Amino acid sequence: MTVLVTTPNGMVGRYVTEALRDRTDARFLVRSAASAEALAGLVRGEIIRGDATDAAAVRRAVEGVDRLFLAHPFAEDQIAAETTLGLTALDAGVRRIVKLGARRFGGGRTPDAVTGNHDIIADRLREAGVAELTVLQPDRFLQNFLPSAASIARGTLADAAGPGARGYVDVRDIAEAVVAELLTDHPTGGEIELSGPASLSLSELAAVFGAALDTPVRYVDVPLNDAWRTDLADRGTAPSIIDGLHDLYANYRHEGTADLGNGVQRILGRPPRSAETFARELLRPAALGSA
Ligand SMILES: NC(=O)c1ccc[n+]([C@@H]2O[C@H](COP(=O)([O-])OP(=O)(O)OC[C@H]3O[C@@H](n4cnc5c(N)ncnc54)[C@H](OP(=O)(O)O)[C@@H]3O)[C@@H](O)[C@H]2O)c1
After folding, report:
1. Could you tell me the pTM of the whole model?
2. What is the domain-level CATH number for residue 11?
3. Which of 7, 140, 146, 195 most suits a substitution to test ligand 1, by most atoms within 8 Å of the C-beta?
4. Domain count, the chain
5. Closest Cα partner for 4 from 95, 76, 73, 120?
6. 109 assigned to some structural domain
7. Which atom of ligand 1 is nearest to the CA of 103?
8. Residue 111 is assigned to a structural domain of this protein
9. Ligand 1 centroid distance, CA of 56 (Å)
């Protein structure tokens, strides 16, 4: 059985890759030379260099593959990349696809391109007749806060998701669910929402982080205004992606308290990791390393 992992250096992909590193029947599709180099010393399986939108590279990557972990960042090429990969894999005989999606919002929210892209891709896969399709729909990742570990350690958690409470989920749980769905004989399948064990507001999350870092941490709201847009544009984010993120964050701000998905329990048979565990095991070391 051959498994293909896409975005093996991505937020979820890196943990999936870590779990499959000793398998000679795991294959990894990477785009950049830097990512390929980072992988080379880590995995025993085959590494294929190529862009997920390049049909020839994708054909090489999916040849002989039985199961596919399909992931892609929110980007202008996301729909093209995931449909090219998924449909080419299906043509090549892939039976099972485990797709990384995103949790949808409760009724009455504005359509946003982030969850909208996932719906379009999942619909195309279903229409194409994938025999075994799992669409994992996680809530916001706790690991989103790792790049800000140093400023959190200085006492500020700045974020644009507003006053609501969410089931922030540890990416390690998402990756374990991916690996379980890929490798088991009998996958759970279908759409599966993944959350952490509790809905937390950003003020509550700041308090959890502060306790782990032994310092008071204050939540500061980042409004979705022109300065927010300019900051993203200055970091090279395309205008359509800024619009999509704006609508996503507007939905976060308006949803209030998000329901909790029970996917970790359903797939892995255990409770999800808590924000406290994430803060102690990953945020604190990141803050100490970068402070
Ligand atoms: N962040 C959250 O809170 C959250 C919550 C729920 C769902 N999600 C979903 O999670 C998914 C992953 O998002 P992410 O931001 O975490 O991204 P990511 O998985 O970290 O992906 C980044 C990786 O994508 C690779 N990549 C980008 N374009 C590529 C292309 N054209 N061909 C091949 N590889 C390409 C890059 O490879 P190189 O390094 O080689 O360039 C990079 O390693 C998204 O679909 C998002 O909607 C995120």
Report:
1. 0.97
2. 3.40.50.720
3. 7
4. 1
5. 95
6. yes
7. 6
8. yes
9. 21
